[in-house]
């Protein structure tokens, strides 16, 4: 099966043809973890959104680690964040809830088929800020290798820690049937893109916050 969907209706649904150069994100301070995040709310069906939040160190070193948070209604089977705004040739961090366990899997693919497990980026789920309750599942994780990665051939893409980066997400209503990072992932129902402002996501105490929440 080829993972190739044209979803013109989705663009209309999300109103996602971003106008001008303004980012699509807002600043959120998460009282629970203490991180300052830049947040995008991705509508995946009418009236329901997944929150994608990014926190970066300030100042950010080369190939900086970042922390991301996904807050998803329980109707979300899985959702993935594409750090290069494409299904192909970039790290995909895919999350779901297996019972009460939040699960994260890093995948990558060069073709539009099910992405395979990828070890070029490493994720660490932070204890604080990762949970499942009756209405939502939420994952907070550190990623090493999401901000700078190889794309095609010998090309590398590096995200700008003090600027706007285009990201993408995909959503499926079908939950993977295990807590294994290698679980089968069904084809997505919806995907879209946005402009995420990392300049509003800086955290002076990034390393201490990672340690505190681990
Ligand atoms: C369930 O989790 C979500 C996401 O973290 C949170 O917004 C909501 O308040 C929680 N609900 C309860 C009843 O704790």
From TrEMBL:
SUPFAM superfamilies, per the entry: CBD9-like
Domain Cellobiose dehydrogenase-like cytochrome residues, every copy: 30-207
Pfam family, one: CDH-cyt
Gene3D superfamilies: Cellobiose dehydrogenase, cytochrome domain (2.60.40.1210)
Tree of life domain: Eukaryota
InterPro entries: Cellobiose_DH-like_cyt
Keyword terms: Signal
Signal peptide: 1-22
The protein's name: Cellobiose dehydrogenase-like cytochrome domain-containing protein
Native species: Xylaria hypoxylon
Higher taxonomy: Eukaryota, Fungi, Dikarya, Ascomycota, Pezizomycotina
